[in-house]
Write a structure and sequence with these properties.
about 45% helix, single chain, alpha/beta
Length: about 450
């Protein structure tokens, strides 16, 4: 059976790349895959050989407010509320319309959804397109048996760990707090004649047929309060190494001496790096170690200021190439960067900014492969101390190597696509290629077209 699959995702490259991995693997198996996401990511999607459809809200690096948006979203205290109340809420109807239009343009037999945008499940319901949901962040399952680390107050996890009953009470409070964040989603469901449904940030995000936990079993085990249809696949890796190869100068540097410390802030936090790279240079000089700075737009300024011998800066390099050749990896703890660092088998120093990053850091520390410090504590003397511990204690390297081997053995994209195909083969959704459009689906698509959905009608 050949499927036409639409994948929705929104966010940074850490949110895009796992879904590109799924799309590439689906096409390798003879299916047709396209991705609905931010317009600024179109070239990355098309370079992967996948179809593209834009969905709102759109954010461009050229927008003068983009840097402030990233700062607000990554704020440890107010970031999650800002993301849903100020970024997604005003665009709720537009996001839904764009998704419906993309489903129609792709003639999709199957929808695969990201945790955001949260209107994906509504589009699947109104168009009657079967859907599979993906989860990148273990903390999104809100498990009472594996409590998350809240970015607003990380210490609350210690209270939640006292007993699952305590965690359940705290989770109920969390759901109550987030109700106002997603009120526009409930209003949209009412407009479309749908029941209110579960909280779209939690239970409501999960497909009743198949939930793909796109992370490693080592990183987080399936808990008894996960949806029973959840399958932990392993991380799904894609980092455009073929489309954006490493600089020859970087390859020469890696070949010339001892493994360097690699400093990176992923694709979002790098926009608000401030003194991170200056502090990193100071710490590397104090330790007398070689270093690679993956510094995005700061690269040119760092080079103009003059880099000490043994320290180089590049705007980008494929993590799959650089990280395995590092001595230690210093990063922000985004799930995409964390996954690549775990796969590399190298120890880490994690400096979380916000959102899921404190939770990801805590998981790596518990594995014995990382140390972590707060962003405010990222000062040269403290960084020297933390890196000295990582470089001087061989147990970190030994454990990281074992975790890396386990992560590399999982083949997340392949496992996820096996599960998708198995779900269809056992008849869970009937025969999607011959599924007739229902009157309700047709009405939903016409409504989307009338109210702005045409923005998503680019050909696949």
């Amino acid at each position: 059976m050949s499927l036409r699959v639409l994948i929705t995702t929104w966010g940074s490259l850490g949110d895009l790349h796992p879904y590109l991995a799924l799309g590439v693997e689906l096409q390798r198996r003879g299916h047709a895959a396209s991705v609905a996401t931010l317009g600024v990511l179109e070239s990355a999607v098309r370079q992967a050989g996948l179809g593209f459809h834009p969905i709102r809200p759109d954010v461009s690096p050229d927008d003068p407010d983009a840097r402030e948006l990233i700062r607000r979203v990554l704020d440890p205290r107010g970031g999650p509320a800002y993301l849903f109340e100020r970024v997604f809420a005003p665009a709720t109807r537009a996001t839904y319309d764009d998704t419906v239009a993309a489903l129609e343009a792709a003639r999709a037999d199957l929808l695969i959804t990201h945790q955001v945008p949260v209107t994906g499940p509504i589009a699947a319901q109104t168009t009657e397109v079967p859907w599979v949901s993906g989860v990148l962040l273990p903390m999104s399952f809100l498990s009472a048996y594996d409590p998350a680390t809240p970015p607003q107050a990380p210490a609350l996890r210690r209270i939640a760990m006292l007993h699952p009953a305590v965690a359940r009470v705290m989770n109920r409070l969390g759901r109550r707090v987030t109700e106002s964040w997603v009120e526009p989603v409930y209003r949209l469901r009412e407009e479309l004649g749908l029941p209110r449904g579960d909280n779209p940030l939690f239970e409501g995000q999960h497909s009743p047929s198949l939930v793909l936990g796109l992370f490693s079993h080592v990183f987080a085990a399936k808990q008894e309060d996960y949806p029973p249809q959840t399958v932990i696949t392993g991380f799904a890796f894609y980092d455009a190494a073929g489309e954006r190869p490493a600089s020859p100068d970087l390859l020469r540097f890696l070949d010339e001496g001892a493994p360097p410390v690699v400093f990176t802030l992923g694709s979002s936090a790098v926009w608000i790096a401030e003194d991170f790279y200056g502090t990193s240079i100071e710490a590397a000089r104090a330790l007398g170690v070689r270093a690679v700075l993956l510094a995005g737009e700061q690269t040119a300024a760092l080079r103009r200021a003059g880099l000490p011998p043994g320290i180089v800066a590049f705007d980008y390099a494929p993590h799959s190439l650089v990280m395995p050749r590092a001595s230690v990896i210093v990063h922000q703890g985004g799930v995409g960067t964390t996954a690549q660092a775990l796969r590399s088998g190298r120890p880490m120093l994690i400096v979380p900014f916000g959102q899921d990053q404190p939770d990801n850091a805590r998981r790596c520390v518990s594995l014995g492969v990382a140390r972590t410090i707060s962003r405010a504590a990222y000062l040269a003397p403290r960084v020297v101390s933390e890196l000295s511990a990582l470089l001087g204690n061989g147990e970190y390297s030994r454990r990281a190597a074992g975790v890396g081997a386990a992560v590399r053995s999982e083949h997340g994209a392949r496992t996820a696509c096996d599960e998708i195909e198995r779900t269809f083969q056992r008849g869970a959704h009937g025969a999607p290629a011959s599924r007739p459009a229902s009157a309700k689906a047709t009405a939903a698509r016409r409504s989307a077209s009338r109210e702005g959905g045409g923005v998503g009608r680019s050909p696949t």
